[in-house]
Design brief:
Layout: H1 3-19, E1 38-41, E2 44-46, E3 51-54, E4 57-60, E5 65-70, E6 79-80, E7 91-100, E8 107-114, E9 119-124, E10 129-133, E11 138-148, E12 151-160, E13 163-164, E14 182-185, E15 191-193, E16 201-204, E17 207-211, E18 217-222, E19 246-256, E20 261-270, E21 273-281, E22 285-288, E23 296-304, E24 306-320, E25 322-327, E26 335-336, E27 343-348, E28 351-356, E29 364-368, E30 384-385, E31 390-400, E32 404-413, E33 418-425, E34 428-433, E35 440-449, E36 451-464, H2 477-482, E37 494-498, H3 501-507, E38 512-514, H4 521-528, E39 532-536, H5 559-570, E40 575-579, H6 586-593, E41 598-601, H7 607-614, E42 619-621, E43 641-648, H8 656-670, E44 674-678, H9 681-685, H10 712-716, E45 718-723, H11 736-743, E46 748-750, H12 754-760, E47 764-766, H13 770-782, H14 784-801, H15 804-815, E48 826-832, H16 835-847, E49 853-859, H17 865-871, E50 877-881, H18 891-894, E51 900-903, E52 909-910, H19 914-924, E53 929-931, E54 935-938, E55 942-945, E56 952-954, E57 962-964, H20 974-982, H21 988-992, E58 997-999, E59 1005-1007, ...
Parallel strand pairs: 37-38, 37-39, 39-40, 40-41, 41-42, 43-44, 43-45, 45-46, 46-47, 48-49, 48-51, 49-50, 53-58, 54-59
Antiparallel strand pairs: 1-2, 2-5, 3-4, 4-12, 5-11, 6-11, 7-10, 7-12, 8-9, 8-11, 12-13, 14-24, 15-18, 16-17, 17-24, 18-23, 19-22, 19-24, 20-21, 20-23, 25-36, 26-29, 27-28, 28-36, 29-35, 30-35, 31-34, 31-36, 32-33, 32-35, 51-57, 52-59, 53-57, 54-55, 56-58
């Protein structure tokens, strides 16, 4: 640039400066970023650039000390004390109340001045309510807030005398009840406890009295107690307006004293489930944006601390989202041009006219309000402040003439440096969401070309999107899990436990089991943060660590257990006790049970006794169950021995009725072959006790004893399993071996039991006398069809309804722990070449009992194929033309959302439990492919193809009678994968590449069974 151009530019800038009247044309041009005073909240000012508001929150972004100064008139920071005094008094009360979110601890400093300038300092912290007694000559006070560190908090109230000096946005105290568009009282009638075991609050004469210790808190539902992730479809309590412009501000009004703390949680729901959750602390408010997709709103309350809550209400006011609107000045004097000889600005009819005279294609920038075009510099004349809870709608009206181009640039800055640049074309509108680090904007027009353009209007609208309440300040990890939009799967629950060996093995596959000793429980639980503590009636407990510390002995004091339970209560961990020894050992464990929040018993008859003795009704029955990973029909090497087995103890001197029942059962079984595994075999071999010896006539049947990890031999190694009950009058209490044996597909013959009959009566043979027992054993040992009916039916029933998955789910539901059980999704493939085949496939698919399935029909062209294509495209059925599959590179693209894929051949028959049985096998078999190596076929008569491979791992499978994990096919092309199914080709190559194949029973499928007769159908659908 030569000296003439420099002179012209200097003269031009001088004229612009003079036109701006000493930089006072704009409201904010007296401010300089990071130096001048700026208003953060009404009448509160700071020099720091590192503090801003987000809704009701003050947010601090630097570790430096920030001071906010109160200026009652916006200018002077002096408050006349006489305005704070009630008539005839010489003191005033000063108080500070905040909602702390991070570790910030704001301090209120009051400087009290005498005549002559001498002062004293009064300091208040959160919750302080201090009387300031005036000394002689003290007339004025100055108020300052001091904050150190990063984070956020909300100020609920600052008072000097009766004067509230904090008037930030969204204070509930500033809104009268009649001003709300919707209001609901929070009373004893509307608040329902969601944590009944935490008795930390109670209503007294309309006041909620809270007496929590440490970190304790309690949750209430407003009008309902369903868990927060559940859409109860209660609807929305008020009419909704323009969904784009309207916001809904919810206030939590009420009075509090002491250290009590309360927050309201507001959740919104769409068809997909819970999507938004905000927290509104008592005395504050929070913003909810409601869309047309929202169909329900629910409310929850949390209380903690100690004190009283009264006059509580939730109220809502509908607001417009636009918080402020800036229309930029189009006077040429407000725009700084880099080259006055190339760019001319003039005003015409309220337009900014830009005359471009450049011959080159160079882009130039015209800055708004700033006296430079160096965008690396922070704006000093017009630092447009950005709030992270807002979006910015920028509109540029005008027209670029022929040969010209005009773009508005937004240059975004943090508190210290430039970050990003955004642009808006002339004649358009854009909405911007800025990162939290962005604090300021400056604006410039980028121009190039030759010709004339005009700008008619530049508008920047600040629209509130949300506030800090959309990030709830949860008390602990358990509360965060409680309010999660999608609960964890049941097996992800973290369970702290004191269990004996059998129960440990039963629950370990169901959850993340946490064990500990009396010495390390606190450090372990602090690290693991469990959802619940479950303690059973353990004799030894966690491999002996808790021996004699759970059961009542003459000398124990429960000291370690009491310390554990007390800590759990303060940490909001619900505690559960399960007495598996009822009813016989009720007295040995009742003192233990009284200490827990929830009590379960194996004996339903004892429930009322527990309610009476424990003083609450959080009591229920919880029977034994089976663990599919341990108790399943996977066969042992070899074949089942054709005998009845028993694993357990004999007591000659107690349980007289048990002894008589046992003798009769053993005698009946002995005729057909009996094998006994004596739990006390070693003791009896040493002759240490006559009372534990089996009767003489059965001793030849004893084969020693079995350890727990060998018990499968008794369950799976024999055709029949025997069960003897010590308790026979309980509707729920009987030996766990009954569930475990049935899950192994082993028929069970049992002594009499009300519980066995009530829960498993269709699947267990009960002792109804010697003649009936003899007939039972005869049929089980000789009638193979009868045996298979019993074995498959019992296994299916227990694995469906009586596993420890169901038992843990009941505990979680009762205790109020959100969880989900994700049922596997199954894709069922079918290839059809006629409408008749399509109809048959759909009929068999719809007959399947398993619910979580989808049918994928692949069509070739045939007569009426268009009708089939149109008829079978529903929520549960999708139809594909084979020719279209070239659009996919692998079949796994089509099966992306499915866990398993099955092939349904139109020529075959599939029973209603076909898919369900495979999904049961998926719970216990570690396999990529489930199949039927043994199967039936039909060519006029029913034929069984038996290779003795049921419930074994095998090395081949055929797609038409298999279910496959789609991941096993990930290396197949679409054509190769479809060929596997359509050709019903062997899957042996997948086994050779490391995929495991497990064969289930031969039932529920018939090859070529499309025209199977009714008798044959009944035979295969056992």
């Amino acid at each position: 640039m030569d000296w003439q151009k420099k002179a012209r530019r200097a003269a031009y800038l001088g004229v612009q400066r003079s036109k701006r009247l000493g930089r006072k044309v704009l409201k904010k041009t007296t401010q300089q970023t990071g130096q001048a005073w700026r208003e953060v909240a009404p009448n509160w000012y700071t020099r720091s650039p590192h503090v801003h508001t987000e809704g009701t929150d003050l947010v601090f972004t630097s570790d430096e000390t920030v001071v906010l100064t109160y200026r009652p008139d916006g200018k002077s920071d002096v408050v006349a004390i006489e305005k704070l005094l009630e008539e005839g008094t010489k003191s005033f009360m000063a108080s500070l109340r905040v909602k702390r979110r991070d570790r910030l601890a704001p301090v209120l400093h009051l400087e009290v001045y005498r005549k002559g300038g001498r002062k004293r300092l009064v300091t208040l912290h959160d919750g302080d309510n201090e009387e300031v007694v005036l000394g002689v000559g003290e007339q004025i006070v100055r108020a300052h807030l001091e904050i150190n560190g990063t984070g956020a908090f909300s100020i609920i109230d600052i008072r000097l005398g009766q004067v509230p000096i904090w008037q930030g946005e969204g204070l509930a105290a500033n809104v009268a009840l009649e001003a709300f568009d919707f209001v609901r009282p929070l009373t004893e009638e509307t608040l329902q406890s969601m944590t009944p075991e935490r008795a930390i609050a109670r209503f007294e004469d309309g006041t909620l009295v809270v007496e929590a210790s440490g970190n304790q808190y309690a949750h209430y539902g407003v009008g309902e107690v369903a868990l927060p992730h559940v859409d109860t479809e209660r609807g929305i309590d008020f009419p909704t307006g323009d969904m784009d412009d309207d916001l809904y501000r919810f206030y939590f009004k009420g009075e509090a004293d002491g250290t009590v703390d309360a927050s309201l949680f507001i959740a919104t729901y769409t068809q997909a489930g819970r999507d938004r959750l905000i927290e509104v602390p008592l005395g504050l408010s929070g913003i909810v944006r409601i869309a047309p997709s929202h169909r329900s709103i629910r409310y929850f309350m949390r209380v903690s601390g100690q004190g009283n809550l009264r006059e509580m209400h939730v109220g809502m006011i509908r607001e417009k989202s636009v918080r402020k609107e800036d229309i930029f000045s189009l006077k040429p004097s407000m725009w700084t041009i880099p080259a006055p000889d190339v760019i001319k600005l003039k005003a015409r009819d309220n337009q900014l006219v830009i005359d471009l005279k450049g011959e080159d294609d160079k882009r130039r920038y015209i800055s708004y309000a700033e006296m430079n075009n160096s965008f690396k510099k922070l704006p000093t004349e017009f630092p447009y402040e950005v709030k992270p809870n807002c979006r910015y709608r920028v509109t540029v009206d005008g027209e670029a003439g022929e040969g010209t181009n005009v773009v508005l640039y937004l240059v975004a800055y943090s508190a210290t440096e430039r970050q990003i640049m955004q642009q808006v074309q002339i004649g358009s509108e854009k909405v911007f969401y800025f990162d939290r680090s962005i604090r300021f904007l400056r604006f410039a027009l980028r121009v190039d070309g030759k010709g004339e353009a005009h700008v008619d209007r530049i508008r920047v609208a600040e629209e509130l999107v949300s506030d800090g309440t959309e990030h709830p300040d949860f008390k602990d990890v358990r509360e965060a899990r409680f309010f999660a939009p999608k609960p964890r799967e049941l097996h992800e629950l973290k369970v702290a436990a004191i269990f004996d060996e059998f129960t440990m093995a039963s629950y370990e596959p169901e959850c993340q089991l946490i064990t500990f000793t009396p010495d390390d429980w606190k450090s372990t639980l602090l690290d693991e943060q469990p959802d619940v503590l479950i303690v059973e009636s353990a004799w030894k407990g966690n491999r002996g660590a808790w021996e004699k510390k759970i059961v009542k002995y003459g000398t124990n004091t429960w000291e370690e257990l009491d310390a554990l339970l007390a800590w759990c209560r303060v940490q909001n961990i619900p505690t559960v006790f399960w007495n598996k020894e009822d009813p016989i050992h009720y007295d040995r464990f009742i003192e233990t049970a009284k200490r827990f929040d929830y009590v379960y018993t194996t004996d339903l008859n004892r429930v009322e006794d527990y309610k009476r003795d424990c003083g609450h009704d959080r009591v229920d029955a919880l029977p034994f169950a089976a663990q599919p990973k341990e108790h399943n029909p996977i066969r042992l090497p070899g074949t089942r021995e054709p005998y009845a087995s028993f694993a357990g103890s004999y007591y000659a001197n107690r349980h007289e009725s048990r002894k008589a029942d046992m003798d009769r059962l053993f005698a009946a079984a002995d005729k057909y072959g009996l094998v006994i595994y004596d739990r006390n075999y070693a003791i009896n071999q040493r002759g240490e006790s006559d009372q534990l010896q089996f009767p003489e006539q059965f001793r030849d049947s004893i084969r020693g004893s079995l350890k727990y990890n060998q018990i499968a031999k008794a369950y799976k190694g024999f055709k029949v399993m025997l069960n003897v009950n010590s308790v026979n009058d309980s509707p729920t209490m009987f030996s766990r071996r009954v569930f475990e044996g049935l899950a192994c597909a082993t028929p069970v013959v049992s002594t009499r039991s009300i519980g066995v009959e009530a829960m498993l009566g269709d699947y267990v043979f009960l002792d109804d006398g010697e003649s009936d027992l003899d007939e039972t054993f005869r049929r089980l040992m000789t009638d193979e069809a009868f045996y298979e009916d019993v074995a498959i039916g019992g296994m299916r029933h227990v694995l469906t309804y009586h596993t420890y998955t169901q038992r843990l789910a009941k505990i979680a539901q009762d205790v109020g722990i959100p969880y989900r059980v994700d049922n596997p999704n199954v894709a069922v493939l079918a290839f059809v070449r006629s409408k008749q085949e399509a109809d048959h496939v759909v009929k068999q698919f719809e007959a399947q009992k398993y619910v979580h399935k989808k049918l994928l029909i692949f069509l070739d062209k045939f007569e009426d194929h268009i009708d089939v294509y149109n008829a079978y495209n529903t929520e549960s059925i999708s139809t594909f033309m084979r020719s279209y599959l070239d659009h996919y590179t692998s079949l796994t693209e089509i099966l992306d959302t499915f866990d398993w894929v099955a092939h349904l051949d139109p020529a075959d028959y599939y029973g209603p439990d076909y898919l369900a049985d495979y999904l049961l096998a998926a719970r216990y078999a570690d396999a990529d492919i489930l199949t039927k190596a043994d199967y039936y076929s039909y060519e006029g008569t029913l034929q069984k193809h038996d290779q003795d491979e049921s419930f074994r791992y095998v090395f081949d499978a055929i797609p038409s009678r298999s279910m496959i994990n789609p991941a096993a096919l990930r290396f197949d092309t679409v054509e190769a994968a479809l060929h596997r199914f359509e050709a019903d080709a062997s899957l042996r190559d997948l086994a050779r590449s490391g995929k495991r194949i497990f064969s289930v029973d031969p039932y529920q499928y018939v090859k070529g069974g499309v025209s199977i007769d009714e008798a044959s159908r009944q035979e295969v659908t056992r």
